Amino acid sequence: MTATIIPIGEKAAGWERALYAFLAEKERRSGSRRTVEGYSRTLQHFFGTMGKPPDRVTSQEVFAWAYGRGLSGKEPSAITIGSRLACLSSFYHFLIRMEIVSSNPCDQIERPKASPSPPRGISAEGIRKLLSVIPETPAGLRDKAIVLTLVLTGRRRAEVFNLKVGDLIRTDGLFYTYRGKGGKQGKRELPLPAFEAIKVALAAFEKDLDNMGSHESLWPSPSRDGHGITSGTFYGNLQRYLRKAGLPPAGVHIFRHSAAKLRRDVGESVEDVSCFLDHSSLAVTTVYLKRLEGQEDRAWGKVAEAIGV
Questions:
Q1: What's the predicted TM-score (pTM) here?
Q2: Buried b / exposed e along 203-226 (16+ C-beta atoms within 10 A)
Q3: How much is the pLDDT for 118?
Q4: Helix, strand or coil, per DSSP, at residue 120
Q5: Does any domain span residue 113?
Q6: What pLDDT is stored for residue 292 in this prediction?
Q7: Residues 136, 183: one domain?
Q8: How many angstroms separate the Cα of 116 from the Cα of each of 89, 109, 250, 262?
Q9: How far is CA 24 from CA 17, 91, 97, 103, in A?
Q10: In this structure, what is the dihedral angle of CA atoms 19, 20, 24, 26, given to the nearest 10 degrees?
């Protein structure tokens, strides 16, 4: 991480250590480097703008920053304001727990009410169109395997792109292990169409699961020497595939929405889909985690049939 609090006065070194400790804890809890980088940028911008250490910041200054125009010169949306305040407030809660400050200037500020846009998802027909335009080249076969894995498992982008050969379990069934949001460890059934697509893609790169190291990526990229394709490269490829299929531009996360939509379309209950996506209340999560280890997935067959694989 390159971002730091702008050094102000004799306490600068202490504030910098507090910031890095906060970011380290955030990364450990979230399991997402991207989330931590976002927090770092926001805090750097705030304290760089204030030009003073955390214990001298007032609620009025926080309000002016949170509701102020950004570099684009546009008025911030309710979601942006809420995100700024959530980030800063989280840092102050950490400082209070560490007994570095005694109060949180964000507590006096009312959060704006946001109306998030409804999540989108690609229909079964749209997924079929998308798969049909992906070329039968080694890179195309790899990307098709990634799409199928995202759609049939419903896992988050990082959870799929971080999959290694050693995460596959082929005894007593076909499963994969993953590290989910918040560092949760999970084990799920790997849908057979996704597994077969992975094997075909690896063969196109002259690789075989039985002869690969456990730390090798499932998504080969010759230019990265066993580390696998980056999500950024896949994103660029995806935009070309979407255009060719006549579908609107979308990020990789749309496949998670699609997975949920397709599960509902084939008759899964809201509760089952919530469990499938690891979305639940604390009480439901407690029950869910007890059942998660090696959990059989009885719905992927219907989704695979709907998208034609």
A1: 0.63
A2: ebeebeeeebeeebbbbbbeeeee
A3: 55
A4: coil
A5: no
A6: 35
A7: yes
A8: 21, 21, 17, 21
A9: 10, 12, 15, 22
A10: 20
Do 92 and 131 reside in the same domain of the chain? no
User: Both tokens of residue 94?
Assistant: 């950490």
Q: List Cα–Cα distances, 262 to 147, 192, 255, in angstroms.
A: 14, 17, 10
Question: What pLDDT was estimated at residue 271?
Answer: 74
With a cut of 50, which residues of the chain have pLDDT below it? 1-10, 281-293
The pLDDT value given to residue 85: 93
Helix 78-97 and helix 33-50: axis angle, to 10°?
A: 90
The CATH number covering residue 17 comes to: 1.10.150.130
Range of the domain at 223: 124-306
pLDDT tens for 204-227 read 999 999 999 999 999 998 876 667
Instruction: Identify the sign of the CA torsion 54, 55, 56, 62.
Output: positive
Domain assignment present for 67:
yes
